[in-house]
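Section 4.2 – Deliverable D4.2 (structural model, holo form)

The reporting period included a commitment to supply a predicted holo structure for the target in complex with EPZ. Inputs used:
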Amino acid sequence: MEGGRKLFGSVRMPGAKNSVLPIMAAAVLCTGTVTITDAPVLSDVRACIRILNRIGCTVMLCGTNIRITPPEHPGSSIPPELMRSMRSSLFFLAPLLARTGQAEIGMPGGCRLGARPIDMHLEGLARMGAEITEKQEGGWMLKAPHGLKGAHITLRFPSVGATETLLMAACTAYGTTVLHGAAREPEVTDLAQFLQSAGAQISGVGTSELCIEGTEFLFGTQFAVCPDRITAATVMFAVAGCGGEVLLTNIRHADLHCCAQLLERAGCSIAPLGKSAAVIASSGRLRAPGSWQTGVYPAFPTDAAPLAAAALLRAQGESAVLDSIFENRFACAEGFCRMGAQASVCSRTLRLRGVPELCGAHVTAPDLRGGAALVLAALQAQGTSVITGTEHIDRGYENIAVLFSQLGGAVTAAEKQREGFEMAQ
Ligand code: EPZ
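Output (structure tokens):
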């Protein structure tokens, strides 16, 4: 990358990674064909397709459309190497258990943001009647030979993944399930609306109390994935840090409210255009917005914290952001410092003191959003930067080099063998 250029142009946001992945898993609950439209083309989506193929689903990927036809009797176990490929392999647990009466999984992979246990997923499924045994070699075997039964479950923390697991488990359980303290992220709402489109009886969507009346089965459907709010935040913070003016389309203003507030406090201007677009403009010289912290929706999203930090590396003054969600969100701080930033991490807080300039450096992406944050820093830096470990970034962005090249950034991706994957038999 050659940094130091302002960004100009327009870009349409893709479908949300954290929505399409649970929806692809939920398709296993359906007895007919599911067509997902406006899906992002990501390595995590390809990993999901491999899991779907492995359990016997026919999957056709055509551009941003994914057609999934589950078999009459899906397989019920996911091999460890597929489980390890991402955190989202965990989303297959509930659909497999609900559809086949058992599920055998290993520990999921995903970004090393902290311990990331799955106790809330397992405890909730146990409350619904699942028999859970831990496997010697690691992983779990869950059985519910007579199906799952509705239960009143209170989540000790509004976990996005646990809410999605229990929501999927409840759709075809016997009786009523009430989830108290459910997560309210837009991607949870999107999954609920997908399930409703397949015939699920869910009320309270968008609130922290979800009530689900189990039905005998779900049928095939077609569903468009909601826009990716973190990709939108990535572009907004890139423009903020580099300077320039960019039109973003296919966005939802409510999903970006907290990011927009922080950016305006830092001196950017954000002009909404109609219901699904906005123009962000920045001089590239920001005012440090002081301290803030992340939280569960509708608070400032944890995934955007490293991205906001990257935009503030050259801001005038000091900033600090506490991530209340994960223990190790700011592994990218090391890369920031290699580019000349003044950044330090103490427990869950990242502290920044703006510097006049950043200089290009060789850095390694520690995780998905940390990697994207290093791209944003390199776009601002004078001179050449090389970022390795970009397979982390490919999990959540269709092609981050193209995303920013089309806006005027000088980003070239070293040619790499696009991983192939077998299409449906
Ligand atoms: C989802 O992860 C997202 N991933 C994450 O995005 C996002 O950062 C996170 O939600 C928070 O919004 C997907 O949707 C695929 P959690 P998830 O369960 O479900 C603890 C990205 O970059 N916890 O809400 O794993 C957990 O350790 C990714 O796109 C338990 O203790 O998040 C964490 O500290 C990164 N026990 C906190 O809760 C459990 O059983 C929040 O986790 C589950 C979670």
